[in-house]
């Protein structure tokens, strides 16, 4: 049976920057063997679509985050152009299905961290025009308009009690554009605020179940139970978020799928991954080629074919299509940038 297989988070573009300074003439993805992801592994894993992460570190905030993020967006486009027999750049649910029909891996872009905007709605809109279809509101640092997950730990502190007024404008503008809102890396207060105000369903691009592994990067039960919002949680394969320890295996990952399915149903589950963005992945899921192993584990646990098919990609396609339908239903904001501390900012 041919199933559509879509992963929501892969950091291969970051590896291209770190290892090759984004010089694609110095690397061949057909033979590269030092990463979780290459073309033979993509084919073995039957990867039908992939959100590639345009990530730059938090230490670029207030410096050159926008430029560096644009360079990561650029390298994703060039990667697709270099390997047209494997990749096809896409920006919509319709284009994704067409690429799958043509036996190409549909490629999309997600920007991992709101610091990449430099508090500018104009930058957000420009990135959308460049093909960005989701934004993770923060990475592991607060932005001038949103609190990250560390504020829920002893090592962090809240600056905005969730979202600032400008942060709420970012949410509305993402709805208007038709850009997916990614709540991975967010504080619980931000999760609740976004779920209460967003007209479109949200995603967690690479997070797991807090009820299995009580790490603050995972999604708590009370958020999972807001399934009426129609969003999706894409399971992270980083060992520390799977078992809260340095080691994990395929069965441990499947436990997160089972837990969320039992608590909130199969319609909110997806495959997140985080390949090439972490240094520890479960035994049996060493790289992107191993996805069939996890599918086999879920089927062995009694998952129905249609439930696995939904988790592999149909759930995320539904969320993207709904976000596309919401597009245009909210007004355009006249202001394009927030002051760094959001003082006195109004619409």
From TrEMBL:
It is a lipid-anchor; GPI-anchor. It comes from the Eukaryota. Coiled coil: none annotated. One of its GO terms (molecular function) is metal ion binding. Its main location: membrane. The keyword Protease applies. It is found in: Apical cell membrane; Membrane. SUPFAM superfamilies: Metallo-dependent hydrolases. InterPro entries: Dipep_AS (IPR000180), Metal_Hydrolase (IPR032466), Pept_M19 (IPR008257). One of its GO terms (cellular component) is apical plasma membrane. GO terms for biological process: lipid metabolic process; proteolysis. Independently of its dipeptidase activity, acts as an adhesion receptor for neutrophil recruitment from bloodstream into inflamed lungs and liver. Belongs to the metallo-dependent hydrolases superfamily. Peptidase M19 family. This is Dipeptidase. The gene is dpep1.
